[in-house]
């Protein structure tokens, strides 16, 4: 591997990133709802946010999203915590989100 790594060092970084995501899949939090209702949810995310978590707030009524982002819109805020391509059931209470993120906090 040494000659290949010497010739293409960026490839090593890509390989290491792939291995890291296989060992600990990327965590994605998808939050949907009306902007005026999302303030308490954003406050929890500011308090608990940790490394290895990507947070996306998607506008209400946005449709035809790809893959894991294609979550249904509801009248009240809803969040989904996904690890890799697997998502937990919908989270409909901000205190439930806080508890879940505290339990799954990464160092």
Folded structure, characterized:
By secondary structure, the chain is an alpha+beta fold. The chain has helices spanning 2-7, 9-23, 39-48, 94-103; strands spanning 27-32, 53-58, 78-83, 86-87. The longest helix is centred in the N-terminal third of the chain and has 15 residues, at 9-23.
Q: How would you summarize the topology of this molecule?
A:
Layout: H1 2-7, H2 9-23, E1 27-32, H3 39-48, E2 53-58, E3 78-83, E4 86-87, H4 94-103
Parallel strand pairs: 1-2
Antiparallel strand pairs: 1-3, 3-4
Query: Which series of helices and strands comes N to C?
Result: HHEHEEEH
- End-to-end distance, in Å? 32 Å
Name the structural class. alpha+beta
Strand order of the largest sheet: 2-1-3-4
Residue runs with pLDDT of under 50 for 5 or more positions? none
- What's the total number of strands? 4
Question: Largest sheet, if any?
Answer: 4 strands, mixed
Integer-rounded radius of gyration: 17 Å
Overall average pLDDT: 85
How many DSSP H or I helices? 4
Strand content is 15-25%
Tag the structure with descriptive keywords.
alpha+beta, 38% helix
Short description:
The protein is about 40% helix and about 20% strand. The chain has about 110 residues and is of the alpha+beta class.
